[in-house]
Design a protein that fits this description.
Number of strands: 0
Oligomer: single chain
Largest sheet: none
Structural class: mainly alpha
Radius of gyration: 17 Å
Order of helices and strands: HHHHHHHHHHH
Number of helices: 11
Strand content: under 5%
Distance between the termini: 25 Å
Length: 197
């Protein structure tokens, strides 16, 4: 699945207050994805890279993301900060600036969900001397080579601010519907999740 397709599902999820509608959209998302992509989609949707017991954190703050947006879009860091103060959401700021930038993408193909997940994992695992600059470069590269719709979620993901309101129970119910055909299988999934969360 292309990350652009996932971003489209996220746009729909973000605008829906109803939990039942969220389950329906997630069900569509899981059915549209290859089985090998579902795990990554769930982690991205939850704003994490792995289960909490693995202890993998992004180590990304607003200022780092602001710098990456500035590099990727050709705007100044002051422009990014000013828009962020007004909008309160770096994802929306990145989307807006990406929409109006004159800089062209260096990549001819669109990112897949798995590529974005792996790049984010690399970003999180980058450490040591010069790691801040490397993280900025990795994030700026993803922003520069993605569409405005994708950029919104690429920026929000490492900040842990996807703002969709999707919890574990909603995901489990959508999985039950997608793979077992009925919400009645949710208790079985929930039991397995509680044993090995």
């Amino acid at each position: 699945m292309l990350f652009k397709e996932l971003a489209s599902f996220y746009d729909r999820l973000e605008s829906v207050p109803s939990r039942l509608k969220m389950i329906e959209i997630l069900n569509e998302t899981f059915k549209a994805a290859k089985p090998s992509e579902v795990e990554h989609i769930i982690y991205i949707t939850q704003g994490v890279l792995a289960p909490p017991f693995e202890g993998i954190e992004f180590g990304v703050a607003d200022k780092l993301v602001e710098e990456a947006i500035a590099i990727a879009t050709g705007y100044s860091k002051a422009d990014v900060e000013s828009l962020y103060r007004k909008a309160g959401d770096l994802g929306d700021v990145a989307k807006q600036l990406k929409s109006s930038t004159k800089l062209k993408s260096m990549r001819s193909q669109q990112y897949t969900v798995e590529e974005i997940y792996e790049k984010m994992k690399n970003l999180a695992l980058t450490s040591g001397e010069g790691s801040k600059a490397q993280k900025i470069h990795l994030l700026a590269d993803m922003i520069a080579n993605s569409s405005p719709e994708e950029v919104k979620y690429i920026v929000r993901y490492p900040l842990g601010e996807l703002r969709m309101g999707v919890g574990d129970a909603t995901i489990l119910e959508a999985l039950a519907l997608s793979y077992a055909g009925s919400r009645s299988f949710k208790p079985s999934l929930e039991r397995a999740y509680n044993i090995c969360s």
